[in-house]
Amino acid sequence: MVIATYRVIDNPQALAKRAEGIAVGLTIGSWTELVQTRHQQVALHCGQVEGIEVIDEVSGGRVIAEISIGYPQANFDGTFASLLTTVFGKLSMDGEIRLIRLQIPNQLAAQFPGPKFGVSGCRARYNVETRPLVMSIFKACVGLTLPELVEQFEAQARGGIDLVKDDEIFFTEAYATPEARVVAYRAAAQRVAEKTGRETAYAVNLTGPVHQLQQRAQKLAELGAGALLVNMVAYGYDVVAALAADPEINVPILAHPAVSGALYGGDTYGIEADIVLGQLARMAGADMVIFPSMYGSVVLGEAATARLIGHLRSESVHRPALPAPSAGIYPGLVPQLYRDFGNDLIVNAGGGIHGHPGGPAAGGQAFVEAIRAVQGGWSLADAAKESDVLRQALEKWGTPS
Amino acid sequence: MVIATYRVIDNPQALAKRAEGIAVGLTIGSWTELVQTRHQQVALHCGQVEGIEVIDEVSGGRVIAEISIGYPQANFDGTFASLLTTVFGKLSMDGEIRLIRLQIPNQLAAQFPGPKFGVSGCRARYNVETRPLVMSIFKACVGLTLPELVEQFEAQARGGIDLVKDDEIFFTEAYATPEARVVAYRAAAQRVAEKTGRETAYAVNLTGPVHQLQQRAQKLAELGAGALLVNMVAYGYDVVAALAADPEINVPILAHPAVSGALYGGDTYGIEADIVLGQLARMAGADMVIFPSMYGSVVLGEAATARLIGHLRSESVHRPALPAPSAGIYPGLVPQLYRDFGNDLIVNAGGGIHGHPGGPAAGGQAFVEAIRAVQGGWSLADAAKESDVLRQALEKWGTPS
Questions:
Q1: pLDDT tens by residue, B80-102
Q2: What gap in Å lies between CA B53 and CA A31, rounded to an integer?
Q3: Residue in B92, B238, B351 nearest the CB of A32
Q4: Residue ranges of domains in chain A
Q5: Which ipTM did the prediction report?
Q6: Could you tell me the CATH superfamily of domain A2-109?
Q7: What are the tens digits of pLDDT across the range A322-344?
Q8: Can you give the residue ranges of the Ribulose bisphosphate carboxylase large subunit C-terminal domain (chains A, B) (predicted)?
Q9: pTM listed for this prediction
C-alpha cells in the first residue's frame, strides 16, 4: 500500500465517512455510492482507511485531523502522474485538505529512477572526496553576451568553485545558447585549471519543449556540461524522471525548486515542502536539490527542513541526493552549515560570493578557505589570519550570533 | 510585456521596494543588489513595476496589496516552464504571495499551441452541431475486466452519450490496456450505432512515461480513440502542449483538473484557479476542460468561474475550448446549465447518469431528453410527460429551487 496522510479541517462527525469516501471513491468507486466489491479482483484495488487522528479543535466546532489512506500498489504505473493523480487528484480540490505524508513501499519506489549519480557519484564527478561542495550562481545571465558570461564564469572558477549554475530564469537564446555556453565555459574552466589544478563544472539550465529535452540533455552532456539545472516543478517530475532514467544522459541533475512554493506555501491546502522538494525530487532522480535554507528571510521551518533532508538521505532503494540549501549563505556561516547538514552538502551561495569586496573570485575563495578551516578543525578566526579573502568576508558578513 | 499580478500580504512601506526587487531580481539581477543596466541589451530584458494597489488592511499593520510586474517577452522561450519559472519561480517561495492574473501578449501566446480542435472542431468530430455535448464517466474502472468495462461502455452508449471518459485514476494495465479498451469500445460503439445512428466516442486516459506519451497518443488515435483524457497538472502543461502541437495526434484533448487544487486551493499562496484550469489549459491545447462546477459541494466561486469561462472563450490567437463543469450535475439542472454556460458546453455527469433508477442507459437518455427539451423551448415538466426516463430523473433529483 502507498499510505498518504492528509491534514483536513472538518466536522469531527464527518471524518469517518469522509475517509471511507476517499478510500473507496478514489480507487474503485464513484462519488454517489460504494461499488459492490463483488469479486476479489476489484477488491485488490480498493483503498483502505489506515487511520484517523484528531489533532486540534478550531472554530465552529470543526477539528484539524490527519486522515491516512492506503492505496494498493497495483493502482500505480510507475509514473508521478499516476502517483499524484491517485493520492491527490480530485482530492486536491476537496476543500481544506493538504497532503502531508507519503509512505511508498520499496517495490513501487523502485519503479522510479532515483538519482543516477547520487552523493558518491557527484563527489567522483566533481572530484570532491569528503568536504562539502561549493556552488555559485551567475550574478546575472539574461541579456548578457557570451563573452560577458564567460568572464563571470572564469571569475568564479578562479575562486575555486566546484559548480557554477545558471540563473534558473535563463531561457533566452538570443545571445548565447545553452550549447554555446557549455562549450565556452568548459574551455574557460580548462584555462583556469591549468593554473589552479581544479576544473570548475557548469550546471546549464535545461530548457525548451519537452519532446526535445532528452536529446538536448544528451547533447549538452556530450559537449561537457557539468550538470543539468532543471526547473523540476515547472516541467513536472515525470519529465525529470525521463532524464534520470536515460542512460545516454550521463550528467548529474540539479533540481531547482522554482514554482514549488505554489504547492507547499499554504498550510490548509497543497503538499508539504519535504514531499515536493525532498521525497519526490529524489525519486525523480535529482542528484542535487536546491531548497530554501533556514538562514534566509522565508524559511520552511526546522521540522520541515529536517524531514526534507531525511527524505534525501534515508535508507532507500535510491541513492541519496545532495542537499543545496539556498539563501543567506556567507562564509562565516560554514561551521553552522556543517552542524546543520554535515559533510554531504552543497554550500550554495549567490550574494555571498558576488558581494565579496574583492569580487567573485575572492568570494569563492573565501568559502573554500572557510571549508578548509572546518575540515582541518581550525576556527574561522584563526584561518582568517592566514587568508585576506576570508578575513574580508568575516568583516563584511560576520558569523551567526 | 507579460504582466503578472500578485496578491501579497506585507507592510505597506515595504511594497515599493519589494515590487522593484521582483521586477529587477527576477529578470536581470541578483538578490543582493541591482545590476547596473549598463547597456541597452540588458535593459531590454529588465522587468518593470506596472502597478501597486493596496486592497485592504489586515492585522499587525500589514495590508493586502496587488503588485503587477511586467516581464519582457524576450525572456520567455515559448514553454510553460519558462513562463511559470519566470513569473512564479523563486517568487512562489517568497511567503504570502499568490499569482492572481497573467496578461500574455498575443505574440507570445501564439508560441503556445492552443486547441487543435476547439469548440467547432469537437462539434464536427462528435457530430453535435448546436446543442451541448453530453459526457459521462465510467462508474468504475480499476480492477474490472475488459468485458465488464465494455458492458459499462455499451450501456452509456445506448443512452445516447456523446463522449464516455475513463476514470482519471485508471492507470493499471493488468486487465485491459488503453489500446485494448479503445479497440473494444469502438466496436461496441459501432454495434450501438447500428441501432441508434450515433457513435459514442471514448476519452481514454493517456498514461505512462512522458517519453512514450506522444507515440502512445498517436497509436490510440489511430486505433479510434475519441479523445485523450490527460491529467494536465500531474503531467505538466508542457507535456500537454507537446501533444497538442503534434499533428500526428489527430484527436481532441480532454484536460482533467486532478492535482490542480494543490495549486489554487488556498488564497494567500498558489495560483488562481482560472489561470490553472482556464488560461493555461487553453494555451496548452486542451480542447475540453473539466473543472469544478458551481453545483457541487466545493466550488470555485462565481467570480473565479466566470473568469475561467472567460479564459476558455475570449477572443484569442487560440481556438476556444469547451468547458466541462463537473460535480452535482443531474437532468433537472440542464436549463440552469444553459443559463450559466450557454450552448458551447459539455454536460458532464457521473452519478447523475449511473444513479438513474433505470440504469446508466436510461440516465444518459434522460440528459439527452432534457437537452432536447431546452433546445426546443419546452419546459422539462412538459418533456417529462413524453419521457419516462426524464420523468424518473426529475422525480429522483428534482430541479434547482
A1: 999 999 999 999 999 999 999 99
A2: 42
A3: B351
A4: 2-109, 118-397
A5: 0.96
A6: RuBisCO large subunit, N-terminal domain (3.30.70.150)
A7: 999 999 999 999 999 999 999 99
A8: 119-397
A9: 0.96
